[in-house]
Amino acid sequence: MGKTNDSRSPGARPDPVRSFNRWKKKHSHKQSQKKQLRKQLKKPEWQVEREVISRLMQNYEKINVNEITRFSDFPLSKKTLKGLQEAQYRLVTEIQKQTIGLALQGKDVLGAAKTGSGKTLAFLVPVLEALYRLQWTSTDGLGVLIISPTRELAYQTFEVLRKVGKNHEFSAGLIIGGKDLKHEAERINNINILVCTPGRLLQHMDETICFHATNLQMLVLDEADRILDMGFADTMNAIIENLPKKRQTLLFSATQTKSVKDLARLSLKNPEYVWVHEKAKYSTPATLEQNYIVCELQQKISVLYSFLRSHLKKKSIVFFSSCKEVQYLYRVFCRLRPGISVLALHGRQQQMRRMEVYNEFVRKRAAVLFATDIAARGLDFPAVNWVLQFDCPEDANTYIHRAGRTARYKEDGEALLILLPSEEKGMVQQLLQKKVPVKAIKINPEKLIDVQKKLESFLAQDQDLKERAQRCFVSYIRSVYLMKDKEIFDVSKLPIPEYALSLGLAVAPRVRFLQKMQKQPTRELVVSQDNKVSEPRAPSLTNDEVEEFRAYFNEKMSILQKGGKRAEGTEDGLANGISDEEEEKEDEEEIEEKLGKGKESQPQFVPSTDESWKNKETAIHFLDRADDEEEDDDGLDADFLKVKRHNVFGLDLKENKALQKKEASKSSVKKKVTKVAEAKKVMKRNFKVNKKITFTDEGELVQQWPQMQKSVLKDTEEEDDTGGINLDKAKERLQEEDKFDKEAYRKKIKAKHREKRLKEREARREASKRQAKAKDEEEAFLDWSDDDDDDGFDPSTLPDPDKYRSSEDSDSEDLENKISDTKKKQGMRKRNNNEVEDTGPTSHNRKKAKWETLEPLDTGLSLAEDEELVLHLLKSQS
Ligand SMILES: Nc1ncnc2c1ncn2[C@@H]1O[C@H](COP(=O)(O)OP(=O)(O)OP(=O)(O)O)[C@@H](O)[C@H]1O
């Protein structure tokens, strides 16, 4: 026993626990060393990304269009692919297949494909990849510019960009008109991808100090042919000037521009033309069924109403040529209650309203949208069944874009074009040339519902609607008049009175430009005849002519004032074809053109030596233009008119005189002369105001005009008046002056009243005198005591004391006192009686009371004689 086991003895096995712990320690140390090493070796994320990018870029060259069916077949970033997948985009469309590869390779691309074929993604994918390739961050500023012709299209593109690019870190911004410029200006510098309309972009380029595009990598023009056409020419040229020359440019449209001149402006480098459907049989989607009907202008509204009544469960877009047509017909159709919800979209609406309408129409399953051409291009409303072209489009391209709002991306759709008999031949020909398969169909007359009477009754009740109808009328005629293709659009063939009736108007409004067009030769004749007469014509102007003359100035001034504010919103007008802002712009151009014509024609008519003829000629030109201006007025709101008219009277005559004196070339801009300016002028010339001074009877001088200041503050004011006007003092002085005037007025009134009172009293006295005289003495004798009023007492009614007591003055005095005492006593008693008898004493009672209170008079006669006397007196009284 007592045997111990020594574990440390040599040869004994080591303790496994201890050795494990030692191993564990070593191992963990090695692991941490390895970890540290790995950490040191690990590349930064950007570096890894760069490697991925370079691998992707190597694959760009290997892209084989024929092998691509899906987006994932392209060498795209994971972030873009994820975004596409999440938005349910997997298979590529033809235009995407053919252009994305080229764009990834950095080439300039001109892409054209039918409407609804997916061109938006064809440029958005390369946009995202371009910035990804460059590892763009928010601090790098603006990298890509996407320009759209309309606000709605820009908004739609921006939404798709947000959806597809949501996994990228770039910032994207939407810059369109109708929002606060300042608000946009604060954010614009942090935007990497900017979706915008041309007008608004240029405004920022001009007005936002820190906005620049020096780092721009890519420029995209959606609906490129539209953006590069004449309408946007100036704006786009200015924008391009601000962009770096070294950049990639992508142009997309369903109707692509082939103009070398247009493309030269963009300085494209060996661009790749991709016309996906160039060899296709038709230039419109195969799933789109297209028909046209021919009907008279006056039938069109009834046709539209009948169409809507038979398509209540469908979603339709109806295109009109001008905003005013949309505005009027929208209201009328809302009142007609066709049984389907009616919406309106046009360039005159507020931006918020436009967005609301856009979103509402996207959401609705069945509805009809009345629109101008702002909705013709690019908009991707889902599930539109019908596109109706109420007014003939400007050209075949506009037709294609309008019709393309239906039958998008493999969906079906139908398009119906309404043509006037005069438009049929030319338009159908154009469409066939453009490979648009349209078939003529006929209206079923049994299904046609005539709404003219209803419209007439609406207008009879509603003045505002009537005015809208008039504007609609003029606007439509003008749109036809301004169309370029005169083979299709012939304004002289329009049934004008019938058209007015169809709008509900009993009388066709005067369309002055048409009248002028018809009268042109006559006017010239008149002028040349007048030319032989030496009498100036101006004095023979009628009042109406003078009014028109004034209206011309007014309109001209308003146009000149508007001049500087046209940048914003230009895109909408341009997108409208012939509508809104474009209408106005064209009006302005027309006016300017006529001004120019006027200048040129003046020497022809005006003998240079005869000044009066210059005046006459000026008047003639103005009247010409006033004709046109009324046409413009049709397009303006009643408030503005009021404002304009208000301006007229301050300007016209001065303008007239100035124009008569100066040459026509200098007449375009006149500075408005204000009353203040005129007053200053007078002050400068040191003119003195005439005074009117009169003399009083006392020979005092009284200044009657200008009125003299009377208040005490006068002197101090004069002392203080060292320079300028002290407003506070002037106010104080006026208040004092006011008090002074009021006091004087009060005194005057008081004196007047006093005088009146005195006159009245005098009149009363006179009347009572006359009354008294008229009564005989007896009566006067009996009545004297009845007189309450001391003033009314007439001493002449008393018996002449001289007759009885001529020498007894003291006695007579006593008698008088007696009488007065008696009178006083009587008066007192009478007052007492009055207090007792509410009803008041009758004259009989009063007399009785008087007799009762009289002291017995000693006549010196016997009682019998006294009685005799009394009886006699009583008899004579009765
Ligand atoms: N690869 C795709 N897969 C599925 N749907 C697609 C694809 N590409 C586009 N689309 C859908 O097709 C519709 C039309 O696309 P998009 O608006 O880009 O046409 P577009 O060619 O630009 O038309 P437009 O000429 O009228 O402007 C959209 O609804 C879009 O979501």
Q: How would you characterize this protein structure?
A:
By secondary structure, the chain is an alpha/beta fold. Among the domains are: 57-275, 3-Layer(aba) Sandwich (Rossmann fold); 288-516, P-loop containing nucleotide triphosphate hydrolases (Rossmann fold, 3-Layer(aba) Sandwich), CATH 3.40.50.300. The chain is 54% helix and 8% strand. The chain is built from 33 helices and 16 strands. It has a seven-stranded parallel sheet with strand order 3-4-2-5-6-1-7. A hairpin with a 5-residue loop joins β15 and β16 (701-705). α5 packs across α6 (151-164), α17 (452-461) crosses α18 (463-482) and α23 (580-605) packs antiparallel against α24. The longest helix is centred in the last third of the chain and has 48 residues, at 727-774. It is elongated. The N and C termini lie far apart (184 Å). Mean pLDDT is 75; it is low at 1-7, 522-670, 714-723 and 776-855. Adenosine-5'-triphosphate binds at residues 89, 91-93, 96, 113, 115-121, 254, 378, 380, 404, 408-409.
Question: Summarize this, please?
Answer:
The protein has 33 helices and 16 strands. With 878 residues, it is an alpha/beta fold.
